[in-house]
Fold these 2 entries.
Entry 1:
Amino acid sequence: MLPFTIETYFSTIVQYNLAIWPAPLLGMALALAALVLVGRTHAARARWIGMILLVGWLWAGVGFHLFQFSQINFAAPVYAGLFVMQAVLIGWLCVVRNALSFRFAANLPGAVALFLAVLALLIWPLVGFSAGAGLPAAPVFGADPTATVLLTLALWLLARGPGPLWLSVVPVLWTFVDGATFLALGAPFGLVFPVLGLVVVLLLVLKRQAERSNGSGRK
Amino acid sequence: MIGMGTWVTFNVGEDARTRAARAEVLKTFFDLGGGMVDSSPMYGSAEDVIGWSLKHLKANGANTDGLFSATKVWTPVFEDGEAQMAESRALWGLNRFDLMQVHNLVDWEEHLETLAADKQAGRLRYVGITTSHGRRHREFAEIMESRPLDFVQFTYNILDREAEDRLLPLAAERGIGVIVNRPFRRKSLINQFAGKSLPDWAPEIGCTSWPQFLLKFVVSHPAVTCAIPATSQVAHMVENMGVGHGPMPDAAIRTRMVSYVESL
């Protein structure tokens, strides 16, 4: 049993977005920029994508979970810790070591990545938007954990190199937290998140196996 | 006899419109003679919203003198109980609480010592402990038998009657006030019986709805001091507060009430 209703949950997003406005617009811009930067081999672009993800996870962890969500949910500080940990891991692998590259691919992981990106940038913000209060009600990358996780999983499906699989542990775990949360709040759409999480894990495993078989596991 | 719980219902964050709506619920509670408001730091922003509502009501000339403030100390992870209680006082806008309870028995040994000292020094009127969902009743009874307590809080409703075995008689025996939580199992009992007819003798005990029937069963137990149903709606508060008036079922009718619901 959660200590809040679904109305209060989305109201919390609205209040947070209003408090930091127009920063959520920056979050949306960063998410779009990350997708634009996905291309063929270019080390600098990959590092920039890593930095965008680092900022997003830190923002969602400290800004949203620790300072906002904690007002209505006593578990929020734990979530904040998880998100900060993920930010550190992304920072190490994607920014410091620049170990990943990203590119679009016309295959199943690419298609699922595209779906996740649309979910993160369009559909999920519309779900919040429909709760009322206009644009500030839209949950977006950085300001909202769910949007941040969805975009991250999309990018992991487009990544090459060591890391996306174990870097997906926290985001996939979050899809289960999200699923459990929304189901407990009486929102059946919550089931979508853990299903997507499992699909991403499966695709990452298969992708990694294919990369190893082709001898193309390195960036 | 009818208090007000704040789990979920008052955890509404910063939204001004929703806070104002909760203040109306609280005003209705006081206007209809209500006193005990129960909360906890575990309930998110509930204490903040209570404090805001009390301030809002006073500023608008409402009478909040009947308030019996009841909250809890809850320290599941390395928290300072005294600091938490000080924060609760600040949030409610009070110099002292009427009742401080150890929430779900977390760190109860340490906190009961602190609360006893606070009571001795006049910083607190009453001391209590809480549990819910039928958990830890044996340990709860042991504490009731061995420690000086003014109030205990636990779950009791027409289907969850474990407390009748030991806790309720023990409370009566030791003169401990009983606060009942989850009188409706968080609405699930109301939903379970919605659409089913009340017994034709329900009006004899002043019940015209299932919430009244379910709540009256709880508060008619001779050992129960009050129940603390939570609501976010003024109409439901009016309905709940009406239960405190009118005929109370005796032991025989209470048995009939249980038999009736179990037959549904």
Entry 2:
Amino acid sequence: MKKEEVPQDDGLLQGKTRDLYYVLDENGNYVSALSTGWEPKNIVMQQAWDLINESVEEAKNKVLNKEASPLLYHMEKNQMDIKLLAQYTNINKNKIKDHLKFGGLDNASEADLQSYADAFRISIDQLKSIN
Amino acid sequence: MTDIKFEHKQSAHCENGVTANLFTFHGLKISEPLVFGIGSGLFFAHMPFMKLTGIPVTGFRPMPGIIFQRAAKKLGIKMKVKTYKNPKQAMADLDANLAKGIPTGCVVGVFHLTYFPEPYRFHFNAHNLVAFKKENDLYYISDPVMENITTLTYKDFERVRFAKGTAEPKGKMYWPISVPKEVNLKKAIIKGIRKTCYDMTEIPLPFFGAKGIHYLAKQMLKWPKKMEERKALQYLGQVVRMQEEIGTGGAGFRFMYAAFLFECYTIFQDERFKQFSMEMTQIGDLWREFAIEASRLVKNRSRSGSDWESVSKLLHNIADKEQDTFERLYKLAKEWDKKL
């Protein structure tokens, strides 16, 4: 790739940083150049996020339909499964399964609620809702 | 508290970047592409028997940590590496290092990495950064993929150093304890090239090197036949993500390797390295073309088999080129190896 071809398709880096590419400059030497983003990459990253967002949306609906507790929503939002959540909270997987059922959080101890809240970096109040 | 003058140099990839920045701090001025080449960082693997979040693993580099280990070993640099069970101890030891003025490499998970752009925050636990200063509750961080120096609070830093899930970092930290005054750069480079050429052309398994690219190209045609189109496109998207995600320098490290070969040309004063650098650049451009075609397929969700065919064909062509280029580069490396 030549230096003048370095793509500047804004997107996922959100202006927080830029990607570094190794490119040929006008004299045929290798140099580095910065890019704000590249469309093909934006497309495939968005594809990965669409999948995550769908799971979050599904979880949200389950909570609204009283098929699951808000814990499911927060777990999906944090891209976690039961195993990973268990690792972050030190709560037994079977216990987590109970807590994921509709109304499950009502039976959870204060300590468990706090562990979940810490894992998701939210308050206990936020944990109990899907807003 | 000692005020460390640590030069933050942005790089494409975290592991090479941390390595280059740490070695440079200790007096061995070295670029990212050189670390990458000496550490035999270029690779290809497609392993359908290994899956991450249900998608087969495709890699353009070896396992995390290996490039760094190889580069240190070949350059004769001794490193101290520590992992921890107790987070408080891990933080206390880091503080002790910083108080002594030792910039320290740390492995972290990126999901909770506060300064990272949100769209890149997945549960990926093999990110590398350097902590070089602490002020009250705040750590100064040189993260090679970031343009500028960033900071992390004690709490946020502890959390990412003890991220959970696949390949937990366990507070891993590392720093050079002895760096030789003189290094045999040429020897290290040639050894690095030989390893890469072997990996790319001679591993007797279908999953690795140029063979692995052919293998992926073949497998890919089966995807739309044996699974839902959506899933097949997720598989394809994953290949492009691995190729172009933060940290490859573009085209699955091929441009970084071209930059490395260009540096070899200036070090060895052998025009042939420059020629290989240009060949690698062209191969990188072909990978970019593949990314463009593949992402179009993802976006348009085309149902016609011919699109999968054409994407697959691009890969076969790349595989042929890489096989040929690395075979000839192998010969050049062997020739130099005899002279050194």
